[in-house]
Amino acid sequence: MGTSSAPRARSSPTIFDVARLAGVSHQTVSRVINNHTSVRETTRQRVQQAVAQLSYRPNAAARAMVGARSRNIGLITTGSSDYGPSSTVLGLLSAARSADYSISLATAVDTEPESVRAAIDLVLGQHVEAVVVVASRIRLLDALAGLSLRVPVLVIESSGRTSPSLSIDQYAGARTATEHLIGLGHRDIAHVAGPGDSMDATERLRGWRDTMAEHGLVAPRPLEGDWTPGSGYRIGNALTQRGSRFTALFVANDQMALGCVHALAGRGISVPDDVSVVGFDDIPEAEHFAPPLTTLRQDFRQLGTNILTTVLDVIEDRPVEPVLRLTPTLVVRRSTRRRA
To answer: Which residues are in the HTH lacI-type domain (predicted)?
Structure first.
């Protein structure tokens, strides 16, 4: 998590330069300068050393500016319409509204560093107190790695590569889905995976594989879709055409599961009489599939609350949980049944 930017070419150092050198937020520097008692002694000494090294001299106007609170948070997305990222954004917007915070939203048109930097510069111009990045693709993390900002940055991603790490535990959800099918007596369980560069898809694939291995079951080569019903339909047809042996499908999201069920029905394969199917996400339409879909529900509203709480803790320099993950909940409907 970045806390400050590299010094700019100026005639005198700024409070953000001090924060960067000391490795703290600029709010912490302000508290040290104003002799607040809430700062740990080791942190106070580090800030004072940075102040002395840079010969920083605060003035009254700067103090007033730093003390002001904008109650505004920057939010960076890739503009994805995928259910998970878009629902995470909605969860954070709801939590911010309840806490009387505003959100300045910017979209990185792709995951190139220049695009990400442009999006961040856009929200920084809105006097934000922190920036939240909803990252669904691995390349976005790579683009963020080289950036150093003057405000705290919180990245929402499921791989655990950033700290603090906030997400919904995709790995645990996949394990729950696979255990559910194994508990129903299924041993030949195929997996329809999401895109290879998606962190959520990677974690769901890993959870399925690990659970199969723990039960001494062979995990066949998964087929990769793109989250859409169309790709699920193509994969469902491919699975039947190549004569794959399976009595159950764990599909990485509900929309691809819809396509799979459609393909199986077109080939006279009944769900769940012949093949049980589990999806992931519990989209609003899942309970109206034919048959209603067994799936994993993610609590995006609670995730939004956790994100906002952590952002405010970082802003106030309070301790934060290094890892905070919500566990998806299995919703059992009629697309799964015990194997005869």
So the answer is: 13-67
Compute the distance between CA of residue 9 and CA of residue 3 in angstroms, rounded to an integer.
Answer: 19
Which candidate, 30, 19, 248, 59, places its Cα nearest to that of 152? 19
Nearest by Cα to 275 from 174, 176, 190: 190
Q: What distance in Å separates the CA atoms of residue 35 and residue 52, rounded to the nearest whole number?
A: 16
Question: Which residues lie below 8 Å from residue 288, measured CB to CB, with a gap of 6+?
Answer: none
CATH numbers and ranges of domains, the chain? 15-67 (1.10.260.40), 72-168+302-326 (3.40.50.2300), 170-298 (3.40.50.2300)
Residue whose pair of structure tokens reads 């900002």 in the numeric block: 149
Q: pLDDT tens string for the chain (340 positions)?
A: 444 333 333 446 777 788 889 888 777 887 787 666 667 888 888 888 888 888 887 654 444 445 557 889 999 988 777 898 899 999 999 999 988 899 999 988 777 778 888 888 898 888 899 999 998 888 888 878 767 777 888 999 998 888 888 999 999 999 999 999 999 999 999 999 999 999 999 999 999 999 999 999 999 999 999 999 999 999 999 999 877 789 999 999 999 999 999 999 999 999 999 999 999 999 999 999 999 999 999 999 999 999 999 999 988 888 888 889 999 999 999 999 999 8
Contacts of 52 (CB under 8 A, 6+ apart): none
Distance in angstroms (rounded) separating the CA atoms of residues 164 and 133: 13
